[in-house]
Amino acid sequence: MNWNVFSNTDLIEHLGWTLVHSLWQFALVAVVLWVILNVLRSGPANVRYVLSVGALAFAVALPVATFLQVSEPARATLAALREAPKAEDVASDYIPGSSPVTGERFANRNGQQPAFGDDGFESLANLRAFVARQFPVLFPFAVAIWLLGVAVFSLRLAGGVFHLRRLKNTEIGPLDGEWNRRFAELCRTLKVDRTVKIVKSNLLETPIAVGVVKPMILVPAALFLQVDPRQLESIIAHELVHIRRLDPLVSIVQGIAETLFFYHPCLWWISRQVKREREFAADAAVVELFADDRVVYATALANLEEIRLTAKTNAPSIAAAANGGNLMQRINRILNGKTEIPRANSAWSAGLAVALISAVLLAVFSFSPGALVNAQRKPKDRKIAIGFVGIPPVDRSENPPKDADATARLIIAKLQQHQVPAIGFLTGGLVSDGEKLFPVRANIVRLWRDAGLEVGIGNFRHIWFYNTPYDDFVAGVEKNEAVAKKILGEKGLPLRYFSYPYLNTGKSIADRDRFESWLAGQGLRSAKYTIDNQEWMYSYAYDMARNDNDVNTMTEIRVAFVKYMDKMFDHYEAYSQEMFGRQIPQTMVLTPSRLVADSADDLFGMIRNRGYSFVSMDDALADDAYKTPENMFGQFGNSWFERWTYSQGKKLRDEPKVDESVEKIWQEKKPKS
Question: Is the model's pTM score more than 0.70?
Answer without folding.
Answer: no
